[in-house]
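RETRY 2/3 - previous attempt timed out on the joint model. Re-submitting the same 227-residue input unchanged.
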Amino acid sequence: GAVVSQHPSWVICKSGTSVKIECRSLDFQATTMFWYRQFPKQSLMLMATSNEGSKATYEQGVEKDKFLINHASLTLSTLTVTSAHPEDSSFYICSASGRAEQYFGPGTRLTVT
Amino acid sequence: SQQGEEDPQALSIQEGENATMNCSYKTSINNLQWYRQNSGRGLVHLILIRSNEREKHSGRLRVTLDTSKKSSSLLITASRAADTASYFCATGGNYGGATNKLIFGTGTLLAVQP
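RETRY 2/3 succeeded.
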């Protein structure tokens, strides 16, 4: 199956700083990538849909100025958590879309202290 | 917004028993997918069933889909301790113009006791 990587796999940052998470499709071109957030013992919540070369579409309640998404190429999308706060601590998962299936990255655990 | 509700929220069984998880959703779908997630890890795609299919098998997994009831079930037969994980259904549909968008259910935490 298709491989999607995320980097870093975990990150600890101080409150007020920004963190960038990368999502790469390694063996296929993904015109669409998705970003999810998962709090402990909860399900995945879709944050935004990222299309190559255009602005991301954010789900209701997700602050687009706080969670900056860039999809500059068909194999790379980035999520930047700006001015991070402890409540942003979560597991962030990306996926890249093939046809009907989405291929998920291994996730990035963000801890904001 | 959360699309699917899964039932039960948690399930504990003995090794060798079958495990059944149910998923209900609210709107029309193109497909329904089941994923497994081990604690703190990424998602593993298990099976995809299209809206015009009623049943699908893959190894020890059997998935059914009833679009009239807007529900699906995942059956794991002859469970093993290694099946211990959270299981999520996810519906794929034309949500907000994005054809591949997935909306995840609440999940079922399965514990298989050796």
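The longest strand of chain B covers residues 85-95. Closing ticket.
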